[in-house]
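queue> pop job 88
queue> type: inverse folding (structure -> sequence)
queue> payload:
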């Protein structure tokens, strides 16, 4: 859901609150990004139902096509090496892997340059 549509629904009194399901799995920071006006930074759910197939058909831990660390956040953070030397980062490819690489590089921006 687009945050402006959510705001419109609330403003028009068509709903008392808005629930997000898969949108929060795709980007758990959706509410904070929307509140900060960073709508373009929201990683959108592409509605491919991979998450639902995992838990309802394949009976495996849930995964997400656009959020590769879902359900593994602590494990993922623990495995991220600390950056001790400033480096230039070039991300080639805009698929989920490339996008996540760019996200991580941006999170470490204090010590990395993104080319
Ligand atoms: S797996 Fe697909 S449908 Fe499920 S939250 Fe991620 S992008 Fe959305």
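queue> result:
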């Amino acid at each position: 859901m687009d945050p402006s549509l959510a705001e419109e629904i609330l403003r028009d009194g068509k709903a008392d609150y808005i629930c997000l399901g898969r949108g929060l799995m795709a980007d758990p920071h959706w509410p904070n990004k929307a509140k900060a006006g960073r709508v373009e930074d929201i990683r959108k759910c592409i509605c491919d139902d991979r998450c639902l197939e995992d838990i309802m058909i394949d009976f495996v831990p849930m995964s997400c096509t656009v959020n590769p660390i879902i359900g593994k956040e602590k494990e993922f953070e623990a495995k991220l090496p600390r950056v001790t030397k400033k480096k230039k980062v070039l991300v080639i490819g805009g698929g989920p892997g490339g996008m996540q690489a760019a996200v991580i590089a941006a999170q470490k921006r204090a010590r990395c340059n993104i080319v």
